[in-house]
Amino acid sequence: MTIFLRGRPARPASVVAMTALAALAALAALTGAAAPASASAAEPAVAAASTAPASAAKSPDVGGVSALALPRPTGPYAIGRDTLFLTDHERPDPWAPAAGARQLLVALHYPARLGSGGGPAPYMTTEEARLMLAQRGLEDVVPAGAISAARTHSRTGARPVPGRFPLVLLSPGFGTPRATLTGLAEDLASRGYVVAAADHPYESTGTQLPDGRFLTCAACEKVDAQPDAAGREKVLAAVSTGRAADFSFLLDRLTGPRSSWRHAGIIDPRRVGMAGHSIGGNAAASTMAADRRVDAGINMDGKFFDPAPVTGLGGRPFLMLGTEAEHRPGSDDTSWDEGWERLDGWKRWLTVRDSGHFTFTDTPVLGEQLGLEDPGAPLSADRSTVITRSYVAAFFDRHLRGRAAPLLNGPAPAHPEVDFHRP
Fold first, then answer.
1. Which positions ≥6 away from 118 have C-beta within 8 Å?
2. What region, left, alpha or beta, does residue 357 occupy, with left being phi > 0 and alpha being psi -120 to 50 degrees?
3. Which of 76, 205, 390, 415 is most deeply packed, by most CB within 10 A?
């Protein structure tokens, strides 16, 4: 992957950044978990809530970079956001055992009453932005403050809409904070879903905890320390199964008799889905294999390091949505061909032409606003957003709500980039 700055004179720092990004892309090809060229983060406050205004207000320019904003959600509801910080005392952290019990930082987006709540929920902290940009070689190209100030459509302190809504779990890519899926989470919440996106400690560039501590990517170091590809794949399989344990614990805390979330009453525990990007997509299958409470899953461009069970997923539906270059039938990642054969319920295999690994995240939107482009993934930010939102929502509408979803029946004139595969 080579990134170019649109409409800006070349600078030595930019050249350095492009080289760093190319190296990270090469690592991504090896691990199936590329690092993005845009930002994300966890919010430090615990139990902060949020709702979506009709439009995103403009943020002030930061460091000469125009204000960034996520796309407007498409559903009828305003959006609230809470943050939960949870500790699983039954499990030590697999990447940092000396740190003690496994902990999770979870963003909850939910349908909220219009006009309730406080200010817009933050996208990330400046320090999280700095850590991520530094790892990607962009610290001298993109101001960290510009990323942290990206405008969301969720508001703190919002009151939920009465009712019971399906729950969707979201898991980000390896080395990537949960905030890179904020645009998708907000859109689903605006359509009437409760969405729980988790930061998995020690598996991203930086996770800021409520006490101010930062956790960096110990799991990345573990992958890097392996002597060969087989060793790396074994560690990445452990990442996927470990996330399955994270989400089973999270389901206990959201839908159990003593919920950790103040608005848990709006969750319908009989309708639960999961989607993930990159290794988070593999984790969707791993979680379904381990936990019957998850009714439907989506893998967005993730290699199946942890293969789907030979016996299938108990007839539950699964969608594979990926790049045309890497995940069409017969491509180098044979795990999708093998996974397809093992899926034993309703299933679809879709690829998107001109897309890249991060097409299914906030990266194209923020990158385009920053003047960054990837010639290897020429699909526009608008088309990336529309395609991802449309197919993810159609899948969950069909399988968690029982609604008609003709978009999933075959090629659609409105989305000519999307190919259906039935190998």
1. 50, 155, 156, 157
2. alpha
3. 205
Residue among 179, 151, 159 nearest 43 (CA): 179
Q: Hey, what amino acid is at 213? A: R
Which structural domain, as residue segments, surrounds residue 176? 4-421
pLDDT given at position 51:
30
C-alpha angle 48-396-117 in degrees, rounded to nearest 5: 20
94-132 pLDDT, tens digit each: 999 999 999 999 999 999 999 999 899 999 888 888 887
Split into its structural domains, the chain has a count of 1
What is the radius of gyration, based on Cα positions, of the chain?
Answer: 20
Q: Where are the beta strands (DSSP E) in 193-300?
A: 194-199, 207-208, 214-215, 267-277, 296-300
Nearest to 417 by CA among 362, 336, 330, 351: 351
